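User: Show me a protein chain along with its predicted structure.
Assistant: Here is one chain, sequence first, then structure tokens.
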Amino acid sequence: MSLAPKPPSPTPSMPGGPTPPAGTAIPPRPPQMGGSMGGGMGGGMPGGQPGAPTMPTPRPGGPDRRTLVVGRGISLQGTVADAERLVVEGTVESQMIQATELSISQTGVFKGEVQVEDAEIAGTFDGTLTARGQLVIRGTGRVIGVARCRRLMVEDGGQISGRMEMLGDTQVPPGPAPRAYAEG
């Protein structure tokens, strides 16, 4: 057993390879595939990850589109501002959100009020939803509460529980529902 001091150890190496010589630029590491920040589109592996929910096809709009993805297992409460596209794979509770597009995946739950141009629901929406354009409820989707839209598409298995209002060309502010029959 020697009590002589150990020579200084080299700088710890980075995971995945040796440490580059001093003065060498280190390129940024690519994002990890399958992580919560991976974008959520297709799972990042050939063929996608088994059991991963399929995401709706994004609309053309360019790479500069402001998108907020609330990933699977994530909960968000509060107000969302300046998001053009909101993708919900986890849970969102909000008083009021205005966006261009709302997409709720099979694992997603949204509770609150939202006004959007277009919405696609494959998970659960509970609250008041106003889609000035198209509302698509997938076969796994559930809308509970009040839904307003100009165009509606419900796949076989999709559910609407509550009040449904179709918007016309001249939007009328929400009010009491008209009576379907006369009393007396």
